[in-house]
C-alpha cells in the first residue's frame, strides 16, 4: 500500500511508503518569497503533491497530523490554507484523507503523547532514519502510525 504522510506547515515534512516497503521522506519549504503573489505557496504545495504521485506511483491514502491548537492566528490561517489544498487535492484524485491527532502520533512513535521535537528526532534516528529536521521526523512518525492502522509492516530503514 502506498501511503503519503504529511506534517502540514510552511515547512512541510513528508514521508511516503511503497508497496515494496521502502520509505522516502523529506521536508519542503513553502514560505512565500519576495515579490511572489500571495497564492504561490498554495500552487507550489499542489505541485508538490502532484510530484509525490508521479515519483511514488498511485497513492492509496494520505495521513496528516490534525493540529487543533496553533501558536498564533497566522499559524492557524496558514495551516488552514494547506489543509484546504490537501483536501481539494485528495478529493480531485480520489485519495482517502485521514487525520491523526498530534498526541496519538507522538505516543505511537515515542511512548509519550507530549514528546518534544528533539525526542521525535531521536526516535527517528533510533529507528534507522536520518531526518533533516523535526518536520521530516514528524512525517515519519505519522507514516509509522498510518502503517500500523492500515496493517502494513513498517520498514526499518530509509530508501536511498
Question: How does this model look, in words?
Answer:
- With 160 residues, this protein is α/β, with parallel strands linked by helices.
- The protein has one domain (3-150): Ribonuclease H-like superfamily/Ribonuclease H (Nucleotidyltransferase, domain 5).
- It is built from 5 helices and 5 strands, in the order βββαβαβααα.
- The chain starts with a strand and ends in a 10-residue tail after the last helix.
Q: Topology, please?
A:
Elements: E1 3-7, E2 11-17, E3 23-29, H1 40-56, E4 61-66, H2 73-92, E5 97-101, H3 102-110, H4 117-126, H5 134-150
Parallel strand pairs: 1-4, 4-5
Antiparallel strand pairs: 1-2, 2-3
Helix pairs in contact: 1-2, 3-5, 4-5
List key phrases describing it.
160 residues, 5-stranded mixed β-sheet, alpha/beta, Nucleotidyltransferase, domain 5
Instruction: Estimate the global geometry from the Cα principal axes.
Output: globular
What is the CATH fold-level name? Nucleotidyltransferase, domain 5
Main sheet, how many strands, which sense, barrel?
A: 5 strands, mixed
Percent of residues in β-strands: 15-25%
Kindly report the oligomeric state of this protein.
Answer: single chain
Q: How far apart are the termini? A: 19 Å
The CATH architecture comes to 2-Layer Sandwich
Write the H/E string, N to C.
EEEHEHEHHH
Number of helical segments with 4 or more residues: 5
Report helical residue fraction.
Answer: 40-55%
